[in-house]
Amino acid sequence: MPLHELIYVSLADHAMALDVLRDLLTRARDFYRTHGITGLLVYRNREFMQLIEGERDALLSLYERIEHDARHRQMYRIWDA
After folding, report:
1. Whole-model pTM over 0.85
2. 4-12/47-54 β-pairing
3. How far apart are CA 11 and CA 20, in angstroms?
4. Of 31, 56, 73, 81, which residue is most buried, by most CB within 10 angstroms?
5. 75: number of CA atoms within 13 Å, CB side?
6. Interior CA angle at 8 toward 18 and 61, to 5°?
7. With contact defined as beta carbons under 8 Å apart, do 63 and 80 qualify?
8. Taking a C-beta distance cutoff of 8 angstroms, is the pair 60, 15 a contact?
9. Which SS3 state, helix, strand or coil, does residue 20 take?
10. How far is CA 72 from CA 1, 12, 22, 35, in A?
């Protein structure tokens, strides 16, 4: 099965402290490992950019989950291939 890639950008609803970001990253890594997803998460000045890779259905399900997360505003999918 070919690898699917998805990149999105979003604005956090508030500035996130380092300990909150670490917790978010730890939980994301555990979830991704379980679901065969890899990726890269960038955060700066309330802005997120994330690249995720994996099986298409798993990524779309994850993206929908992130999209409904109250911590994100102005979420845009900029790559989906």
Report:
1. yes
2. antiparallel
3. 16
4. 56
5. 17
6. 100
7. no
8. no
9. helix
10. 31, 5, 17, 22
